């Protein structure tokens, strides 16, 4: 049993707190993807909910905790999905939510954060600049800073996906997990290593934003100077030490994939699975595309973790079927 | 309680027979659609499963019945979704499945039917020609003809969606249901009228394939000479009398929508909900677009019933975000 910061009893309890609309997401074989990928592929679909990503599993826990304590305010830094989820969870519980984001964040995500009633503050610079500003607001105003991956609720919320995987009737060999700050990977990984240790946990990160992957391989925190990827949801530069410690206990591997493979993965999910996904959600397919031999004949589950994309950017990346057949 | 051919006890039992991968599909508010539609909108998503449509809820019942009786063969006519679903359900139970389809059917659907191991026979002419040929095969070979909407299993399978709607914590005013042969409408309508009679059941059909809608308004079977619509899933011309009788008991209204509205609905579901859908699945949104006043301020559920589209055709219909903002 992995001695992470996470606790399986709390993860089980979390399902009583999280709005059921975020639980029990679809898990299904997608045979149309298989000829091209050379392995059996199941999709765990985290986009068919009010915020179109898995993040609300965690923010439901955070918001519930705050509301229970009578703390009416929270702030977070977000590339968009955490902010949208915290706004949704906070609104339902009467919380006053501030989201700090890079002004280069995905427009569709920023619009949804505003529409959900949160205060949105934009900063110049990247996600790390937003993290600094959010921390400053929390310090000055004395309000709760919600830190993705560091805060145990964000990991244990994501871990409920792991419970759904191990409880399913499907048996599989490998779970491919998008790696950014590490909440999803440590959450799902914790449950898998405890309940189904034979299942391989493979984390996938963009080559252009490799901080946590380098850290996992080096067994020590490695920061990077930049994060250059279209996968905004996983574009951090400074891994959190406690999260790395957990990741070292639960991940079997961490791999990096090229931007072109992420785009190819998005295209395949569109053409063969009928799914519009954001770049982070295509990392698993990208990993198979880059190393078919490794996964040949195995049964992989890929967690399709979000679908918040700007339609214009999506089109530029993926093109059209007409472009591809031309 | 509506005296249809359907039986609620059997529908409840059906959930023990249908593979769980097809049950408990997502039901969620999609606020991003609401400003444009002027009403609260929830989506019941029937595309996140191995056959990308609701049809397997019915074919699971049919295939299970046949397997239980030791009948090893079945044939159906299909525009694609029923065939794909019957192929999937039959394969899992060792049945020999033949699907007859128009050679003008959606290529993506035909490819999936073949990939699932069914025998595919193409006929010239439209879906009604396929129905005739399937009946002939059944007669000559003495095998079970699976008739969509006429066969009670196809209706009661679809009706399990109705159970999920009435069991949800969400309350809503109207359910918008794609109308073709009537299995989905009579199935869901039966459960709603029995368990939540205050909820309005509105069927939506393309103006170019209006046979069942004309029949419902005229209270007698009205056939049409042609069916001209991109919504291949609902393009029948000869309503089945027994299905019309049921529909008269459970539908509050049946409306027709233009092709341009169906396309606009597909675009909205792509841009605001991140969903690729086939034309039939956009009928509900199309109905709201054509009569915003009617639905203003109400909470509608639209059943997104399928996502099997040819990527090329989809692109021709929907265009790109770049086209739309240009």
Write the layout of secondary structure elements.
The structure is a homodimer of 326-residue chains.
Chain A: H1 8-17, E1 27-29, H2 34-37, E2 40-45, H3 56-69, E3 73-77, H4 81-92, E4 96-102, H5 107-115, E5 119-123, H6 127-141, E6 144-146, H7 152-167, E7 174-178, H8 183-195, E8 200-206, H9 211-218, H10 241-250, E9 253-257, H11 259-273, H12 283-290, H13 292-295, E10 299-304, H14 311-318, H15 321-325
Parallel strand pairs in A: 2-10, 3-4, 3-6, 4-5, 7-8, 7-10, 8-9
Antiparallel strand pairs in A: 1-2
Helix pairs in contact in A: 1-7, 3-4, 3-7, 4-5, 7-8, 8-10, 11-12
Protein name (chains A, B): Threonine dehydratase
InterPro entries (chains A, B): Ser/Thr_Dehydratase, TrpB-like_PALP, TrpB-like_PALP_sf
Domain Tryptophan synthase beta chain-like PALP (chains A, B): 23-306
Please count the beta strands of chain A (DSSP E, at least 2 residues each): 10
Low-confidence stretches of chain A: none
Quickly name the level 1 CATH class of the largest domain in chain A: Alpha Beta
Query: How large is the count of helical segments of chain A?
Result: 15
- Strand arrangement within the widest β-sheet of chain A reads 1-2-10-7-8-9
Report the biggest beta sheet of chain A as strand number plus sense, adding barrel if it closes.
Answer: 6 strands, mixed
Q: Would you list the SSEs of chain A in sequence order as H and E?
A: HEHEHEHEHEHEHEHEHHEHHHEHH
Radius of gyration of chain A, taken over Cα atoms and rounded to an integer in Å: 18 Å
* Oligomeric composition of the shown chains: homodimer
Mean pLDDT of chain A: 95
**Number of domains in the coordinates of chain A?**
2
CATH topology description of the largest domain in chain A: Rossmann fold
Helix percentage range of chain A: 40-55%
